[in-house]
């Protein structure tokens, strides 16, 4: 299981950097992301010229680091965005990122000045003694200081809340997906078990006529033939171009005899049913029900070719609601009934 404290393992940092750059552009704030140890995991986005110069100064940079560290700790303590003033009275925000109440890192944003110059409501988190050297540095950078973005306090609070909700949602969803993928790989490595609830023959019901018509509207191209043992699950899997769908394809191909719904497969892939449906059609070229029907008919052909199971037994094994429905679907795809197909195959083999 991936560590919930390892932000580098939870998210794709290259994609996160692109998002961070975009957020910085929209909010006009400098942004950087750090892990739970305070170590930066991204590059600084939109770092202001004044702050760049100050952080390069041997004396002043240590105060910047203290501001970052204390701001992050205070945000963790409060478990909410913490808005404060740095040692140059520049406004900064520390936004904690948590997953299941576990602190995994923080987003540091800011490098702006308050529009109303009202710093009384904010804490200057680190005070710096005035020295001739620091005063000279500030005087030399007065023009860069004047170029810092200026924002009203209400806008800063709104941005802080937006960044908090967005960052925590993205990180938590990525963490959930990583956990599910890890559990799924463990399940594949273990002995076959039912990892999703599915309908059994006893509680199956025939689909409505409209559903039958929709299912019959899929492609009639035949699939799969072979001489594998009939009642053993086909553990072969197909690779798809979209890795998000791979758990569903693995599950479908290894459990063709089961009933499984689009909703169940969407849960397995950790995406919504509607999004799963769109991705599935884009990947396979047909809707989910038509694809599964073709797959089951391919398995039925194998059973008809390699076993002496009756049509009723094959229908039951593949979890069709009854033999009549199975025969109707089979005939749609193969232009002949299961019994006629078996006779045809035996004739060719004879």
Automatic annotation (TrEMBL):
The keyword Cell wall biogenesis/degradation does not apply. It comes from Paenibacillus riograndensis. One of its GO terms (molecular function) is DNA-binding transcription factor activity. Keywords: DNA-binding, Transcription, Transcription regulation. PROSITE patterns: HTH_ARAC_FAMILY_2. Residues 246-344 form the HTH araC/xylS-type domain. This is Chemotaxis protein CheY. The lineage of its organism: Bacteria, Bacillati, Bacillota, Bacilli, Bacillales. The keyword Transcription regulation applies.
């Amino acid at each position: 299981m991936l560590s919930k404290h390892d932000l580098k393992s939870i998210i794709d940092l290259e994609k996160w950097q692109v998002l961070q750059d975009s957020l910085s552009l929209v909010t006009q704030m400098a942004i950087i992301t750090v892990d739970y140890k305070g170590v930066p995991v991204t590059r600084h986005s939109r770092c202001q010229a004044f702050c760049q110069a100050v952080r390069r100064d041997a004396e002043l940079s240590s105060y910047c680091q203290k501001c970052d560290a204390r701001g992050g700790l205070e945000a963790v303590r409060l478990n909410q965005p913490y808005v404060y003033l740095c040692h140059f009275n520049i406004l900064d925000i520390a936004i904690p990122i948590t997953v299941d109440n576990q602190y995994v890192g923080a987003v540091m944003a800011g490098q702006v000045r308050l529009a109303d110059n009202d710093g009384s409501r904010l804490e200057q988190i680190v005070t710096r003694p005035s020295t001739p050297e620091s005063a000279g540095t500030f005087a030399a950078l007065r023009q860069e200081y004047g170029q810092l973005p200026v924002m009203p306090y209400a806008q800063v609070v709104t941005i802080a809340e937006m960044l908090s909700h967005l960052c925590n949602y993205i990180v938590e969803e990525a963490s959930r997906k990583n956990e599910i993928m890890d559990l799924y790989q463990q399940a594949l490595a273990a002995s076959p078990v039912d990892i999703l609830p599915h309908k059994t023959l006893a509680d199956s019901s025939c689909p409505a006529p409209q559903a039958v018509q929709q299912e019959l509207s899929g492609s009639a191209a035949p699939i799969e033939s072979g001489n594998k043992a009939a009642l053993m699950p086909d553990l072969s899997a197909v690779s798809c171009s979209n890795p998000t769908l791979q758990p569903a394809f693995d599950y479908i191909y290894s459990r063709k005899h089961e009933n499984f719904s689009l909703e169940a497969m969407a849960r397995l892939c950790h995406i919504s049913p509607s999004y799963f449906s769109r991705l599935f059609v884009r990947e396979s070229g047909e809707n989910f029900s038509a694809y599964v029907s073709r797959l089951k008919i391919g398995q039925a052909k194998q059973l008809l070719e390699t076993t002496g199971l009756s049509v009723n037994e094959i229908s039951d094994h593949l979890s069709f609601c009854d033999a009549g429905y199975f025969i109707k679907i089979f005939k749609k795809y193969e232009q002949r009934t299961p019994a006629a197909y078996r006779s045809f195959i035996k004739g060719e083999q004879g």
